[in-house]
Automatic annotation (TrEMBL):
Keywords: Hydrolase, Signal
Highest taxon listed in the record's lineage: Eukaryota
Pfam families assigned to the protein according to its UniProt record, in alphabetical order: Lipase_GDSL (PF00657)
UniProt protein name: GDSL esterase/lipase
UniProt xrefs under PANTHER family: ALPHA-L-FUCOSIDASE 3, ZINC FINGER FYVE DOMAIN CONTAINING PROTEIN
Molecular function in Gene Ontology: hydrolase activity
Organism: Riccia fluitans
Signal sequence, renumbered to the chain: 1-23
Family: Belongs to the 'GDSL' lipolytic enzyme family.
Length: 465
């Protein structure tokens, strides 16, 4: 199906609050990161120089190169969508950018520490860029309060700040041939860089922080290919035990530091997302969730892990006198890893669902897990409107099970009030809502809902699940 994930079962549609009113508990999203959340920053800085600018990157969702290191959407794209926000434009993009709902400061190759590696845009630089963005926005709005392409001043305080990098600080050591113990020696500096970044944002405005920890790096095809090993070095998921232990060590330092910082900045919310625990559980239960390949890349040179350090996804090269070509698997949706380092869109979707479920937030954060994704008790409508365009949120209903695979995206029971005073009850998975006859991959496809009758007037809904 042109690389798109076929959906088994029935697609049901659940109403999602539209941008007609500000429904998100976070009105804006500001992201700091590396290639796992870069939506075009490195491309803007160094055009025509990075793999994500070319197919097969982006093929599953965008149908063209999406300047993202995946076959489709990134985790940050799913987070933005779930918050009711548009995809984030990169801060470095000078044309067509709209920052009304936030900005993305992530660039591929970024590290936390100020080191010369793959990108000059380390976390400290990204924070300075955000501070400059904040100052310029406030100054601009003071003389042009109607500017619709910049976030409102309150959004800087009420918005969500995500910090998702640190992995390249590990891989820097790997490429230098450092042992796990040698890499551990500088990990406290990485933690300090992250806490300093939070302080730098807090000093200006930010109060809501979600910090990614480090995933199990011993499971990446990149690491498994780069590091010589024997079967005895692998855990039950086929991952390098010592390198995963390094992730655990770092995450312990990070969690303690964030807890200390929370005690210091009492009016802030500082939460860690345990991507390590999330992915460990994910890999252990991959088959049950529809994934067949955990440590093998979808796009790469055919080999044990479908990865070659000298031939990237989408390219060919001569290695030891032999021409090698990276090929793409027929169905990325059954792979967790796209190119040896980055997730497939299918994996990003699954991980996003787990974030919203709340299980992997440290500590628990009801504001994110319970409130942001519910329908509001009332949806005020302009008095002149009896029908209008609403986006839909779709989920998959298995024909063999009552369990909905995307249940963490769904609303709890709420009442949607119309301007005539009558009610439309939305009961999440228990409500018999109109069935979508088809699904599409267009980000802005909408279905028209007549609130007087509660019926769908168009025949499709757009997919975010």
């Amino acid at each position: 199906m042109d690389g798109r994930m076929a959906i088994a079962g029935v697609l049901l549609c659940v109403l999602m609050v539209i941008p007609l009113v500000q429904s998100s508990c976070f009105p804006a999203l500001f992201n700091f990161g590396d290639s796992t959340s870069d939506t075009g920053g490195i491309h803007a800085a160094f055009p025509n120089a990075t793999p994500a600018e070319f197919l097969p990157y982006g093929e599953t969702y965008f149908g063209k190169a999406g300047v993202r290191y995946s076959d489709g959407r990134l985790l940050i794209d799913f987070v933005a969508t779930a918050l009711g926000l548009k995809f984030l434009d990169p801060y470095l993009q000078s044309v067509t950018s709209n920052f009304a709902q936030g900005a993305n400061f992530a660039t591929a190759g970024a590290t936390v520490r100020s080191i010369t590696y793959l990108s000059p845009f380390n976390l400290g630089v990204q924070i300075k860029q955000w501070q400059e963005f904040y100052i310029n926005t406030i100054n601009t709005l003071s003389v042009d309060p109607g500017n619709s392409r910049l976030p409102q001043p309150s959004y800087f305080t009420d918005g969500l700040y995500t910090i998702a990098l640190g992995g390249n600080d590990f891989t820097f050591g790997y490429t230098k041939g450092q042992t796990p113990l040698q890499i551990r020696s500088y990990l406290p500096l990485v933690v300090t860089g992250i806490t300093d970044a939070i302080r730098g944002i807090y000093a200006y405005a930010g109060r809501n922080f979600l910090v990614w920890d480090i995933e199990p790096q011993g499971c990446l095809p990149y690491t498994l290919t780069l590091i010589p090993h024997t079967p005895a070095d692998l855990d039950a998921n086929g991952c390098l035990r010592d390198y995963n232990d390094n992730s655990v060590y770092f995450n312990g330092l990070l969690q303690t530091a964030l807890q200390d910082l929370q005690a210091e900045l009492t009016d802030a919310s500082i939460v860690m997302l345990s991507t390590y625990d999330l992915k460990t559980d994910f890999f252990a239960n991959a088959t049950a969730n529809g994934f067949q390949f955990v440590t093998t890349a979808c796009c790469g040179v055919p080999s044990a892990y479908n990865y070659n350090t000298q031939v990237n996804c989408g390219s060919s090269g001569v290695v030891n006198g032999i021409t090698l070509t990276a090929v793409t698997c027929p169905d990325p949706s059954v792979y967790t890893i796209w190119d040896g380092v980055h997730n497939t869109e299918a994996a990003n979707r699954y991980i996003a669902q787990q974030i919203f479920g709340g299980k992997y937030l440290r500590p628990a954060w009801p504001k994110l897990a319970d409130n942001c994704f519910e329908f509001r008790s009332q949806l005020p409508l302009p008095s002149a409107l009896s029908s209008f365009v609403l986006p839909f949120r779709c989920f998959q209903n298995s024909s063999t099970s009552d369990k909905h695979t995307d249940a963490s995206f769904l609303a709890t029971p709420r009442t949607l009030k119309r301007n005539r005073g009558a009610d439309i009850q939305l009961r999440g998975v228990d409500d018999v809502l109109p069935v979508c006859s088809d699904h599409v991959h267009k980000q802005h496809q909408h279905a028209l809902v007549d609130l007087r009758e509660g019926t769908i007037l168009s025949n499709n809904c757009w997919r975010i699940s």
